[in-house]
Amino acid sequence: MLADDHALVRDVLRKYIEERPGLRIVAEASEGRELVEAVQTHRPDVAIVDLWMPGLSGADAARQITQSGSSTRVLILTMHEDLVHVRDALRAGAAGYVVKTAPARQLLDAIEAVSRGNFYVSPSVSHHLVQSVRAEDGAGSTLLSVLTPREREVMQLIAEGLSAKEIATKLGVSIKTAEAHRARLMAKLGVRKASLLVRIAIREGLVES
């Protein structure tokens, strides 16, 4: 299945992928939560996921899919080539990471690799993995690593401009619970203003500027 918030991108990918015998797109999603639900419904072998999507990031969606016990393998397709994003995606459970600047053939190679149970990372970012292994424990960890998955979700929704009531509705919790998540994540990050949360979310790649 395809998950990208741009319909044109999904259309192009669908046409390219389905030209390959044996490959068929069974579902599409335009935002993170829709992706997680669609995986449960359609059970695709591979989910090709953009790293940034509204509501729930591709990394956090991958984490939820992995933790649910689904057999669907997540393949990240993104414009981000830095260590922080590569490591965050792989730690979340993604089986592959392909950059959008790579030759189109790499995407098909990645689909075949992850569908067979293997892992695939674009050669242009594979050096990051070597650097990460060589780094000392804890070096280069992101600021968001102190947050729980739910706190990351709340932070993204705050950065997208949702109110406490809207966040509560989105997550299916009470307003009081949503406000508690907000208070905890702000305390962990040492910030007192929502505007600073937005800046951090953009800097850490949780949302786009």
What does this 3D model show about the protein?
The protein is an alpha/beta fold and 209 residues long. The chain folds into 2 domains: 133 residues, Rossmann fold (3-Layer(aba) Sandwich); 61 residues, Arc Repressor Mutant, subunit A (Orthogonal Bundle). The protein contains 10 helices and 6 strands; from the N terminus they run E-H-E-H-E-H-E-H-E-H-E-H-H-H-H-H. Strands 2-1-3-4-5-6 form a 6-stranded parallel beta sheet, sandwiched between helices. About 2% of the residues have low confidence.
- The share of residues in extended strands comes to 5-15%
How many beta-strand segments?
Answer: 6
What's the helical proportion of residues? 40-55%
Number of helices: 10
Average pLDDT level:
87
The span between the termini is: 27 Å
Order of helices and strands: EHEHEHEHEHEHHHHH
Please name the CATH architecture of the largest domain: 3-Layer(aba) Sandwich
The name of the CATH topology of the largest domain is Rossmann fold
Brief synopsis:
The chain has ten helices and six strands. The chain is α/β, with parallel strands linked by helices and 209 residues long.
